[in-house]
Every structure is written in structure tokens, then in C-alpha cells.
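Let's inspect one such protein example.
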Amino acid sequence: MSAPGELQIAYGSHFEQRLRALAPARRTACLRVIDALVRRQATPGMRVKPILPGKHYNEARISSGDRLIFRITEGVLYLIDIVMHDDINRYGAGRPRQ
């Protein structure tokens, strides 16, 4: 259960697999970003912004190369994927492309 004002978290097996596959330092950095989003305390360094053109998903910077793909709807933080910066365009049209 989350504290008042914090977001609930939802994610699927794809996200869990991606998170587990990260090296420990990269995983820790990702968890820090998730924690900040849950507490609604995103920092300027996270560069949270919608992914254009569809704006269906948002991205948050984990590191110079890694991005967290997510959505926030009705008080729930939906964790979608962890991708390299160059792979962001797969999420720009509204749904991930395979």
C-alpha cells in the first residue's frame, strides 16, 4: 500500500524480466527513478516527458542511455518497459511496435 499522495504501481512480466536483466548498478538507478515517480518527485535530471507523436507513453531518463517507459492513469504508475534511448521511437505512435 502506498502513502497518501503516492501512486500505486502496476507492471507485467515483460517489465519484470527487463528489470531483472539489468546489471545491478543499472537496476538500482532504475529503481531510484521509479521511487521518485511513485512519490511524484521527479527531478529535472530525469527529463520526464511524453513520447511524441502519440503522447500515449512517457519517458524518464535513468542514465545517459537508459529510459523508463511508463504511463500514469487514475493514480496508477504503469511501468511499461526499459529501453535504450535510441529505441524510444517504438513507443511514439501509442503502442509498442515489435
